[in-house]
Every structure is written in structure tokens, then in C-alpha cells.
């Protein structure tokens, strides 16, 4: 039956350990196959609330291949009572100390059930009537009928999403999640550096090429006075498209200038972007190639990286068009892979002096703006550059893409101006004084190294929050961007990214943290709190994202807390329990 499989079957011991680990995380289908359901011994009924000790023992038994016999021997407690009456399901979770910090999250290979009123997802706090086959949504109290394929549900036959300990589950269903898509890495490499620095950067990039996941798509752009887009798909000869560093490049210009419609007529109407909207996969594969196929070309391009050939007068800074290069990278990704996980990894070795996003003029007589200048508002190029990067941020968020910046220079490179684009897209910033410094080298490798041979990097996420009417959301502080989805759940007070109940998270991983700020909602016309009949309230966090294995997943976390009153005034002392 699926209960056992969700905790790892005997087969998990055999063969490839990674595959076994995946199997362990994957719960069986719902409803369970009839044969399996019929053969399940009655002793498999679960105690509620679950004893974690029992759970761990059961899991160990399952892992050691001794999982068939049920809970009879070994001194385990006698089978407990059946699930309590549905009312008790609304109990608070056990104290935090008893909850494993990072339990295996079950991955359910089917679509979630949603409340027909508020669209929140069936969860362990839902009140279930097994006889009438109805569940009550804890958020809006709507009664929802179970669909036909849940008709076998009973107290002893629960789908995983109703297990009390699975307050976080992931759904993966091909109907909802679409095809598997590879992650995309677009390298954007500064060449206005001394030979020594270029040498360091070359060797770091060469290491990264070896660590790229085979299925990931890779693109390569270099910049100095001009922006060069390398056509990795063009056989053994090096070939690249060159753009002026003095202006940004729109997606339309890119489509025209980079021969995406060579020999064919460009559609005159509609949005042209990606293979779904008008581009052939061959035209895209000229610039974005699977890492496994372009390793040779990529290594050749990296090997031949040279200092920007344009002469720099002694009294001037190098002509470095960081802004134009990032604009080209963003537009190229927007043309080729909109709405699919991608990150721009920019390696910058000095201040931007050319074109949009410049932070200082080329003349060395003019010093780079300092903290004081920013405080006094006397950095002449600052506002313009911030505005430019704000546009890039909007474009990237719209496309679902991330900007990472590796800024390695003794000089400043302009992260203050760029940071809006990095923050809103959930990107990474690494600052070091040289590309030879271990801070840079180790950080870069750490992004690409992981024990599981996956990067743990997820992409293109959308976070939505449902909550009980007792609370309202003021906003979120963290690496995300508001999707401006107005909702009755939003508070009038805004902190961070507020006035919405949905946020875009272009880049996210295991360590991504968000701070949610909420308000206690007051009942109209009185000071009493808690519109619900009970003193219990709920949050549900829904994260729809591109998993590093390529599929879209939906992670649903539902938590509950109880209002308690302290000894002081009522309003000041309501708090989380
Ligand atoms: Zn509801």
C-alpha cells in the first residue's frame, strides 16, 4: 500500500541509492491500486496523534526491508484507537521540539484538491466527514465534496495530504505541471581586466563547465566596449554577434539582428518568444545549448578569452558596458526561454563606464561615488542607473529569470545600483577583491557543487498565501517581487512587498528565507479578535516552482496557531503559541 511506500519500501535498498532516495520521497498514487489496498493488513491503522517514536521505528523497519508485517512485535504499542472524531483534527500541531526539522516531504503524483470557495488546498487541518465524503475548508468553512476518485477515503485509508504530520506536501502532476524543462545558465563575462584577473576567471569558469548539470542549457556573453553574444551552436568555428555598449537592446531588436528568422518571414503580429510563440528550437539552440553538447565549444571560448582589445588612455577608465551586456542577456533569455527557469551569472571586474547603467565617467579625474555622495544625493549618475536596473528587474521578474553578480575588483563595480535587480529576482551577490580570491572561487563552486548532484537551485516560483480572516498580510521582506494580486487578505498597512497575496520568486533554494509580516484583523465595530468560532487560525503557503529536476511542482504548507491572551491588555498580548 502507499503508506509503506511513502516511507521507503524494501526496494529502496537495492540498486542506485539516488533512485532509491527518490522512490522514498515519492508516495504512491491515490487512490491506491485495488490489489494493494485489499492486501493491507488491518494492523496498519495509524494512531493519532502519531507517536514520532513509533513513526521512526516503522520507518527504520521499512528501510531495513522488514516492513511487511505491521506493528505486531518488537514491543511496539498495541494498535491505537482509530482516528478521533473529525472535530479534533483542528488541534494544534505538536510542540516544535517534537517535529523533525526537515522531515522528508512527500511528493504526491496527483493534483491537489482545492476548496471551491477560496481555492486553498486540502490539508491535515481540514475537517473530514468520511460518511458524507465531505471536507470543510479551515480557511473559509466551505463544505467541499470529495471527487469520485477519493470515494475510498475512510478513517483508515487516508491520502497523504491528510496525514497529520504532512503539513507540507508537494504535488507533481503532469496535467498541471507541464513538461520537464532544463535550467538555463547565461554567463556574462567582463573582459576589461588585467591579464592576471582574466586568467583567474578563466580557470574558475572552466571548473564550472565541468560541474554544470548535463541537461542544463548554457549561453555565453562577453563584454567590454562592446557586447559579444557567442553562438555556441555554430560548430567548431568561433562566431559571435556584436552589440554596441552604448545602448540597451530590446527583444525586438534582438529578434531582427540575430537572424532568428533567417530565410523565413518574421510573424508581423503577436508576441514572439520561445518555442511556444513563434521561434524554432533550432534558432534558439544556436545560443543556448545543452551543457553536455557544448562543453568543447564552451571550453574553447573560455580558453580564448582575452582582455578587451580597445585601447584605454592612461587618464581614463576602461570602457565597460555592464548595463548593455545585462540588457542583452535579459532580452536574449526573454526571446528564447521566457517563463522557464534561467539565471544570468554576471562576472564583473570594475565599474560600468559605458552606456546605460554607468556609475562613473571614463575620466579618472572624476572619483567613483562614495557613501557620502549617495547620502547627500550628489552622485550624478546614480538615479539614472538605478532606474535602468529597475527596468531590468521588471523585465527579469516578468520572464521569471534570476540575476547573480560576482563582483571581483578592488574598485567598486556598482552593486548599489544593480542590487534592485538582484534582490527582486532572488539572485546571489558575491563580492571579492579578485577573481583569484577564495571567497569568489569557493562561492562559485558551492553553487554548482552539491552532494545530490543537483544544484538545489529552484527557479521561477510563485508564492501564494491563504490565511484565516483573523489575520491580514502586510507584506513580505525577502528576495521576491510582488505580483500585485490584490486580495481581501491584504492589510492596508504595507511592509516590504505588500498589497498582494502572491509574489514572484525567480530564484529560490533550500535556504531562501522570507519574512512575512501580518496584522491582526479586527472584527468590524468591536475590539474583539477572532471571527472564527474557535481560537485557532491558519496559514497556507503555496509555492509553485520549477524543481531542479525540471518539472513544475506545487509545495503546500499549512500551519495553525492558537490565540492566547496574556495578563496585560487584550490587544497587546495576543501572540503565537
Ligand atoms: Zn476555502
From TrEMBL:
<feature type="compositionally biased region" description="Pro residues">
    <location>
        <begin position="78"/>
        <end position="89"/>
    </location>
</feature>
<dbReference type="InterPro" id="IPR006896">
    <property type="entry name" value="Sec23/24_trunk_dom"/>
</dbReference>
<keyword id="KW-0653">Protein transport</keyword>
<dbReference type="GO" id="GO:0008270">
    <property type="term" value="F:zinc ion binding"/>
</dbReference>
<dbReference type="InterPro" id="IPR036465">
    <property type="entry name" value="vWFA_dom_sf"/>
</dbReference>
<dbReference type="InterPro" id="IPR037364">
    <property type="entry name" value="Sec23"/>
</dbReference>
<dbReference type="GO" id="GO:0030127">
    <property type="term" value="C:COPII vesicle coat"/>
</dbReference>
<keyword id="KW-0256">Endoplasmic reticulum</keyword>
<dbReference type="Pfam" id="PF04810">
    <property type="entry name" value="zf-Sec23_Sec24"/>
</dbReference>
<keyword id="KW-0472">Membrane</keyword>
<keyword id="KW-0963">Cytoplasm</keyword>
<feature type="domain" description="Sec23/Sec24 beta-sandwich">
    <location>
        <begin position="459"/>
        <end position="564"/>
    </location>
</feature>
<protein>
    <recommendedName>
        <fullName>Protein transport protein SEC23</fullName>
    </recommendedName>
</protein>
<feature type="domain" description="Sec23/Sec24 trunk">
    <location>
        <begin position="182"/>
        <end position="448"/>
    </location>
</feature>
<dbReference type="InterPro" id="IPR012990">
    <property type="entry name" value="Beta-sandwich_Sec23_24"/>
</dbReference>
<keyword id="KW-0479">Metal-binding</keyword>
<keyword id="KW-0813">Transport</keyword>
<dbReference type="Pfam" id="PF04811">
    <property type="entry name" value="Sec23_trunk"/>
</dbReference>
<comment type="function">
    <text>Component of the coat protein complex II (COPII) which promotes the formation of transport vesicles from the endoplasmic reticulum (ER). The coat has two main functions, the physical deformation of the endoplasmic reticulum membrane into vesicles and the selection of cargo molecules.</text>
</comment>
<feature type="compositionally biased region" description="Gly residues">
    <location>
        <begin position="65"/>
        <end position="77"/>
    </location>
</feature>
<keyword id="KW-0862">Zinc</keyword>
<dbReference type="InterPro" id="IPR036174">
    <property type="entry name" value="Znf_Sec23_Sec24_sf"/>
</dbReference>
<feature type="compositionally biased region" description="Basic residues">
    <location>
        <begin position="42"/>
        <end position="62"/>
    </location>
</feature>
<dbReference type="InterPro" id="IPR006895">
    <property type="entry name" value="Znf_Sec23_Sec24"/>
</dbReference>
<feature type="region of interest" description="Disordered">
    <location>
        <begin position="1"/>
        <end position="89"/>
    </location>
</feature>
<keyword id="KW-0968">Cytoplasmic vesicle</keyword>
<dbReference type="Pfam" id="PF08033">
    <property type="entry name" value="Sec23_BS"/>
</dbReference>
<dbReference type="GO" id="GO:0006886">
    <property type="term" value="P:intracellular protein transport"/>
</dbReference>
<feature type="domain" description="Zinc finger Sec23/Sec24-type">
    <location>
        <begin position="112"/>
        <end position="150"/>
    </location>
</feature>
<dbReference type="GO" id="GO:0005789">
    <property type="term" value="C:endoplasmic reticulum membrane"/>
</dbReference>
<comment type="similarity">
    <text>Belongs to the SEC23/SEC24 family. SEC23 subfamily.</text>
</comment>
<keyword id="KW-0931">ER-Golgi transport</keyword>
<dbReference type="GO" id="GO:0006888">
    <property type="term" value="P:endoplasmic reticulum to Golgi vesicle-mediated transport"/>
</dbReference>
